[in-house]
Design goal:
Elements: H1 9-16, E1 18-28, E2 37-46, H2 51-59, E3 69-77, E4 87-95, E5 98-106, E6 116-122, E7 128-133, E8 137-147, E9 150-159, E10 162-173, H3 177-193
Length: 195
């Protein structure tokens, strides 16, 4: 199967839209409880004129005209209700001369729950690298699609005294009931000819 990885942040958001099942392994370098586990990630693409994009731009003094849109991310532990503490709005501000690199604004960071600006770059093979500077921490994340419906994320968080944690996540897209019905219909001819 021919696979074209996303090479701009908005293409990455569009390819990521939907619900994902995430399995993560977390390794702490200090005496913190294990945070490994499973969760769901729900991603919605936001247009440039979405009020949530405008609000993030306003709060970080960025002209919305410099953006291309954004995405809403919600992380849910399995079988739990949505929690606003595990949600973020990301707004893309690409480099005007090179759309494979730029910044995105977050209304709340993953490590520290404060607004942050992240730097990103897509490598020629489609691997996305994200660097985030917090007040007391530094985050580095890499993410790439293996197929259209399976992706991998690895990250480290570095405290002032060194690396504090490392995370590995494998994520697969959840099939919607509508897509499942389409897949069944597409495969009916093959199923009827099977011995």
């Amino acid at each position: 199967m021919l696979f074209n990885p996303p090479m701009t942040m908005m293409d990455f958001f569009r390819k990521s839209e939907g619900q994902w099942f995430s399995q993560r392994t977390v390794h702490h370098f200090d005496a913190v409880a294990d945070e490994s586990g499973e969760s769901n990630i729900i991603i919605e693409v936001l247009s440039q004129d979405d009020p949530r994009v405008a609000e993030v731009c306003r709060s970080q003094n960025v002209d919305p005209a410099r953006t291309t849109g954004g995405a809403s991310f919600n992380w849910l532990a399995n079988l739990e209700e949505a929690n606003p503490d595990y949600a973020a709005i990301l707004v893309d501000v690409p480099d005007p001369n090179d759309p494979t690199t730029g910044k995105f604004l977050r209304n709340r960071g993953y490590v520290e729950g404060i607004p942050v600006i992240c730097r990103y770059r897509f490598a020629p093979d489609g691997v996305l690298s994200i660097q985030t500077e917090y007040e007391r921490n530094q985050g580095m994340e890499r993410c790439w699609f293996i197929t259209n419906d399976f992706r991998v994320r690895v990250s480290t968080v570095k405290m002032l005294n060194g690396v504090n944690l490392m995370t590995y996540c494998s994520e697969r897209r959840c099939v919607t009931p509508e897509r499942l019905a389409e897949m069944t219909k597409e495969n009916l001819p093959e199923m009827s000819t099977a011995p």
